[in-house]
Amino acid sequence: MKKQMQLVQCTVNGKEVAEYVDVRESLLEMLRNRLGLTSVKKGCEVGECGACTVIVDGETIDSCIYLAVWAEGKNIRTLEGLEKNGELTRIQEAFIEEGAIQCGFCTPGFVMSATVLLERGEKLSREAIKKQMSGNLCRCTGYHNIINAVEKVMDENFEKKDET
Amino acid sequence: MYDIENYYNAGTIAEAVELLKEHPDARIISGGSDVLIKIREGKFAGTSLVCIRDIREIKGIERMESGDIYIGAGTVFSHITNDPVIQRWIPVLGEAVDQVGGPQVRNIGTVGGNICNGAVSADSVPTLFSLNAMLRLSDGKGGRTVPIRQFYLGPGRVDLQPGEILTHIVIPEREYMGYYGHYIKYSMRNAMDIATLSCSVVSKTDVSQGILEDIRITFGVAAPVPFRCEKTEAALKGMPVGEELYDTIEKMVREEIHPRDSWRASREFRLQIGGEIARRALIRTIELAGGDPS
Known about the structure:
Number of strands of chain A: 5
Number of domains of chain A: 2
Mean pLDDT of chain B: 97
Helix content of chain B: 25-40%
Number of domains of chain B: 3
Largest sheet of chain B: 5 strands, antiparallel
Radius of gyration of chain A: 16 Å
CATH class of the largest domain in chain A: Alpha Beta
Mean pLDDT of chain A: 96
Structural class of chain A: alpha+beta
CATH topology of the largest domain in chain B: Uridine Diphospho-n-acetylenolpyruvylglucosamine Reductase, domain 3
Strand content of chain A: 15-25%
Structural class of chain B: alpha+beta
Low-confidence stretches of chain A: none
Shape of chain B: globular
Distance between the termini of chain B: 57 Å
Number of helices of chain A: 5
Strand order of the largest sheet of chain B: 4-5-10-6-7
CATH superfamily of the largest domain in chain A: Beta-grasp domain
Shape of chain A: globular
Oligomer: heterodimer
Strand content of chain B: 15-25%
């Protein structure tokens, strides 16, 4: 158990970041403790609950089972990077409209999973949406409204596409 | 903070082999979805790591001119599922690895790690057994190639020698051309669960004659290591497609596999499920071949 520090340079929410991290540190710890991005929740710490979900190079990962040094050169997005000039993204609004939030602890992770799913631009069945959101757990069991929110925005996106 | 003693990063296969020889106590880490969790649990606490995730040579999938398909051991599950070569030639493998954990885990977990950790419940492995996959191992010199069936030594134990790394999984053309496969994972949840029992059937059907020409049946969690039902396979080859074939696979599989009692499920339950999922998987492969399963 020796302290072994390493420089990590990456992009976090559009900003270039350079941090010396301990090689034993998880990305979750780097984001929360060094960069203050506390939307990234520490839940199970074994990659089961999805509360620490972030987007790395366009794919969701559990940042608790991802070493900080692996972030070198990567493009990382957390919930903090979604809002623009005080405006929420459509999926964040839809979570509010649909009451897809109870205690809120799982919400950032769910929103990140939903964000990637919606950005892919596919039209999925409700069952397929559930499968894509299955790496996130809600201990309040508010799944129904969460899936409703994702489905709502997906439908809207496709209605818009049809009009154009 | 993970309890890691020393961390070494390899950029090439040669570097990885060198580091492993220099540090014989170090463990290989690739995706991390298994090793990091075992460090957290304490099982691997204090281990040193040789990280192979930056090695480009072991990522990606390619179909060679010979028709053989090379899958880099460092390829993550979701990339296998989305790969056009896999979707066209061996879709069963893409479907099988799409049942691992959840989306986030499938974005980091690698097929090589799934094989090398020796877990009998690994979702990629029954299908790789049924495809008679070969494993390409590198030791910095000539390396060796072994059939995946010979790689499994016992529960959690594989034939990976010190200083060796798994670089590719090779599916020879003759093993998949004309074959259709289906994988069934029986688990308590649809996601984020490991298999209670799993079965991958890969078969070749003469559709015009209605004859099952060839079949390979592999179970996960039905024995200490992934298990091929050789006796059942031999008995089924050449049988006409129909109810009698399905009754035979169901009955013979139950006699051949030897699952155990565990907190997940009893032996009796696994035997019951085993016959049923083998039957269903076989019927599906015949449908996929364009045959009439009835």
